[in-house]
TrEMBL record:
Listed name of the protein: Acylhydrolase
Taxonomic path: Bacteria, Pseudomonadati, Bacteroidota, Sphingobacteriia, Sphingobacteriales
Family annotation (Pfam families): Lipase_GDSL_2
Keyword Hydrolase attached: yes
UniProt keyword annotations, A-Z: Hydrolase, Signal
Limits of the SGNH hydrolase-type esterase domain: 68-223
InterPro entries noted in UniProt: Ester_Hydrolysis_Enzymes (IPR051532), SGNH_hydro (IPR013830), SGNH_hydro_sf (IPR036514)
Position of the signal peptide: 1-19
GO molecular function: phosphatidylcholine lysophospholipase activity
Length: 237
């Protein structure tokens, strides 16, 4: 009996072990935990490699305004040491999470931080300007710690969000821009004003410069390009 019992146990464990070893690996990579979309530019960053001697990388960190820029006006980025790291729909804490991978690890010489509009649009909840500023301050402090020049943006004018009508964001953006300006001046950061050259009498975007009242068209991006290059020259002088 004892012998038979031992034999049955041995067969059971052998079959179980074989089943475990022969079971195919069906696990698939799941990005649900990648809230900040670190995977978005991961491969592109890896292919980039180290900066070449004399290379002064400038990272454009933001959401759809920057991501669409490269798609609509690719010539602005072609041949320049500019790295577009915009991801549509992102809010300021997501930019903060991405800051190490998409700015610090790329050994950027300067970073342009454009944050706040999606927070104000309440894409994922109601966020105060104080919270936005806390995230901007954290990114600026990280940049400064790593010797990266900081360029802070006064956000583009928006009278109304097509997907979140009735929020009346214009005054909130103006208030946020005042805080960004005061913080930049207090810390000797370069200020990049995207608001003034694009604003109409309602403090929204001029109709001839936008596709939807939020995102610039090609003409709008050409105006942004001019003030952006001026800011980069100032930061890197």
């Amino acid at each position: 009996m004892k012998y038979i019992y031992s034999l049955v146990l041995a067969i059971f464990f052998s079959v179980n072990l074989f089943a475990q070893q022969s079971k195919p690996d069906t696990a698939k990579e799941d990005f649900k935990d990648d809230w900040a979309a670190l995977s978005h530019y991961k491969k592109e960053n890896q292919q980039l490699g180290e900066p070449k001697p004399g290379e002064k990388r400038v990272v454009f960190l933001g959401s759809s305004i920057f991501e669409f820029w490269k798609a609509r006006v690719p010539d602005f980025f072609a041949g320049r040491q500019y790295l577009d790291r915009g991801i549509a729909g992102q809010i300021s804490p997501q930019l903060l999470i991405r800051f190490r991978q998409d700015v610090i690890d790329l050994k950027a010489r300067a970073v342009i931080i454009l944050a706040g509009s999606n927070d104000i649009a309440a894409n994922t909840g109601h966020v105060s300007n104080q919270t936005i500023m806390d995230n901007i301050r954290s990114m600026a402090e990280l940049a400064k710690l790593h010797g990266i020049k900081v360029i802070l943006c006064q956000y583009l004018p928006v009278f109304d969000y097509p997907w979140r009508k009735g929020l009346k964001p214009a005054d909130k953006i103006i208030s946020l821009n005042k805080e960004i300006k005061a913080y930049a001046e207090a810390n000797n950061f370069t200020l990049l004003d995207y608001f003034s050259p694009l604003a109409d009498e309602r403090n929204g975007q001029k109709a001839e410069l936008t596709t939807d009242g939020v995102h610039p068209n090609v003409a709008g991006y050409k105006i942004m390009a001019k003030v952006t290059e001026e800011a980069i020259a100032k930061a890197l002088k």
